[in-house]
Structure prediction request, 631 residues.
Amino acid sequence: MHRDPIATVTDADLFEMRWQRARGDLMAPLLRLYGDRIDAGELHDRLHGLLAAKWADRPADLRRLDLARDLEPEWFCSHEMAGYVFYVDRFAGSMAAVADRIPYLRRLGIRYAHFMPCLMPRTGDSDGGYAVMDYGRIDPRLGTMDDFRTVTAAMRAAGISPCIDMVLNHTAKEHDWAMRARAGDPFYEGFYRLYDDATIPLQFEETLLEVFPDQAPGNFTWDAEMGKWVWTTFNSFQWDLNWENPEVFLAILAVILDLANAGAEVLRLDAVAFMWKRMGTICQNEPEVHDILQALNQAASVAAPATIFKAEAIVGPRELVPYLGAGRHTGKVCNLAYHNSLMVQFWSALASARTDLMTHTLRHHFPERFTGAEWATYIRCHDDIGWAITEGDAEAVGVTGPGHRKFLADFYAGRFPRSFARGADFQVNAATGDARTNGTLASLAGLEAAATAEEIELAIARILLGHSLIAAFGGVPLIYMGDEIGLLNDRTYRDDPHLAGDGRWMHRPAMDWNVADGAEAADTPAGRIWRGTRRVLRVRAQTPALAGNVASRILETGHDKLFCLERPGLDARVVALLNMTDKLQQIEARRVGLDAAALPPDLLTCSPPAQEGDRIRLPPYASLWIEEPRP
Ligand code: GLC
Prediction:
């Protein structure tokens, strides 16, 4: 009888094939990083052993998903992908209760769910959970790892990919590794960057920046108990790991694979820019960071291939691109990275009612597409907005970097004349005058300040414009919890001593389920924002040209009030036109490659765009998605 060879492929065969596929791309960066610290053969064998052990632990349904994703490696680039970001307690109360909210997420059109930090944090101030004490446990106030497994399985069944935060630049100072280091165990001392006296820290400080100059100035902390200085880029209780030590790589890789085996399909790698330190630099975006990311990603492709990596690197445009793969790392590092430049440019264009800086910056610095990778696009998240506008870009459009950054900080703090925003300053730097900004999408977009029906109208239009931008741009659009119902700033964090010192809590309000549950039918701003957001996501899900692996081409039209984008799909081309001002704008159809005599309908409204002669008309803050089938 004829024997079907496919039927004889065992799980062990699959593992070995994947190991062969990834081995070169995995070992090369590791040898560059650690070749002089560990014997190559030993590293190879330990890695193979670790991956085989984690693969052996991997549940059967996840192995099935692995196979599906091997066959469809760009699954996350689908036009149907859209993400939602939430704090477990503020969204659902507990880990187990998240499952009850799956129908809500599905109604909104969500296919990816980011659980904000939910591993066991230190007690007291934990930087919103980014100071992890135990990577193997869910925060006991939220539930257990078994609850997480149950919820991720339910999401998987509903076609939603769970994403979890993996903090790999630092641990809490109460983490077991740090406790052992403090107790003098040399193996764990090697996990951190410890110094007997201040000589080396002071040399590094000469070129380092400060992340939290207000609440945590400097980058080093004296630990009296240990009698040593510790590298602490963020808060004094977040100890930077020493990635020059291969043991750190192996230990963190084991954690990542355990989380993948618990059902996390996307790992949000926190603060990756800071992982490698080099004297005389700002110690961000060093080339070794990309070697580490490549090695982690390639290792996961062997033992948990269904998993993808998202880089959180909130850095300047030039430094951002390599996180999605450049040069020898092309197609091998992270699959997603936050497009913080797009986010900043959206707010900048709204405040200045001009799109020249936005068009220039986004055209100039970013490729139209990546290999096996795409953006995570967003308008707001749980962090402040840093006004990352470079001098060169500012000058290219006739403004100055410091002047424009100050304008944006003033505008969004509500200080600028006629500002519609109600944000707040964050980490004001007295030396440079730079300030970052806090505030929810709705409060920054004018809903909090709106006093008249017309102002409410404009605020809603700005919110939907933001969602239209991230959905049309290319990449996975991420909706931050509550933004789909226009939640306003919540200032009650000031009453909680553990939160009061960190103004970012202002834009992390708890979900308002009374509003959300009724939003579908409500004739309120919340209802209109909810339906508008869902519409944007639905239309996107029906439009293959908006998939993440279709080029994202910014059109230079010379019109400095409109942002114009082209998505050249195979079967159709979509032109997205966004009016970033509160005035009616017009543009000749041919300037965006359209024929005024035969304009196809706008996908968002299903009606033909308003026209005057050969010009397309856009009401204040309107967006049009015009799809032109290919001949
Ligand atoms: C990331 C997080 C931020 C946190 C920091 C340190 O930037 O988004 O909230 O404070 O990392 O972990």
Summary: DSSP finds 21 helices and 24 strands in the chain. Residues 11-34 form the longest helix (24 residues). The radius of gyration is 24 Å. Residues 127-128, 130, 167, 234, 270-271, 312, 382-383 surround alpha-D-glucopyranose (CB under 6 Å).
